[in-house]
Amino acid sequence: MRKFLFIIIFGFTCLSAGVRLKDIATVENARQKPLVGYGLVVGLNGSGDRSYGSGRGTIFTVQTISNMLERFGITVPKGQLRTRNVAAVMVTARTPVFGRSGTQFDVTVSSLGDATSLEGGILLMTPLLGADGTYYAQSQGPVSIGGYNVETIAGEKLRKNHALVGRVPNGGILINPLPGQAFDLEQPIRLLLNDPDFLTASRIADEINLIYGGYTVDTQGLIVTSRIARPVSAGVVELSLPDSITTQDDAVFFIASVETLQVEPDIEARVVLNERTGTIVAGGNVVIQEVMISHGNLTIHTTQRPVISQPAASFSNAGQTVVVPVTTTEATEADAQTAVLAKTTTVSDLARALNELGLKPRDIIAIFQSIKEAGALNAKLIIL
User: Fold this and answer.
1) In the chain, domain spans
2) SS3 of 48, please?
3) 3-state secondary structure of 129
4) Rounded CA gap, 59 and 41, in Å?
């Protein structure tokens, strides 16, 4: 019996406890800004950008080296520069979360010219700018590529991993931190959900109010719950700081305690199909209504076999042997296999039923699509 790859992911609703709030939401102030810069990697062993003797190599690499040497008081004709030990690169990174001046972070370097490898290179000091052109950080340090790309004189090549992209661990230093990193005690703090969902947002607000909301007694002697959190949308929960929070330290301790709250997020029912690899991933909360599945295969096999024929005497080529191909076509249809799934069938029941039919993964993908079209699949069908 054929087996197929069928992965079942059980949602958080199957667990007895929820997950930490910090695992499903982030604080709005904890944002990052993408950075980019242009620099040079030096110290390469002849694997840098090419130059062709006449100075007509990678033009921007030659121009950059010439400008750099002029800043050091050295003037060299561009036609005399050799760039095989130097490579022009683009440097990309993101500002660290809640970073301050002097905070270090990793940067990625990518070859911009026609270098063959960045192995053993050193990134020279490179300014890193934001999309608005603001100078935020600078980077410098040895490049780690985790591989190599070697070519011998005889033309043999030996390669491991991709040698034209590397990282500089802790090579970036934040110079100008992002504004607005501190908490404004007079303004509410917003929690951004990683996967926006109305039910999850309401559950987060209810849990925070239950733990930190407190109670007050109105003029009529009734107990009124004090709500400090409210869901603004499916992706945002607004949190007002209690009156007891008067300093930044208090706000940090309060947010840290809020992030440890256990919340049970609502997981959308999904079935993910990958036709290229034949992989099927279904959530544990996927429900299938009553449906009948019938599967059968039709195979058409065509063959040709040569037949020796002797033409009649009336033909012009009488007496000559002629080979005539004879085509035979056979059609074979396998017996249809039928399975009936009851109402509210779970993914486990469906996996067991399809496995009994002996189907291949791509057949199962087609069946899932048909079940969705029949309106019996109560889940979102995602095809990669």
Assistant:
1) 6-10+269-297+335-383, 19-29+188-263, 34-174, 298-333
2) coil
3) strand
4) 16
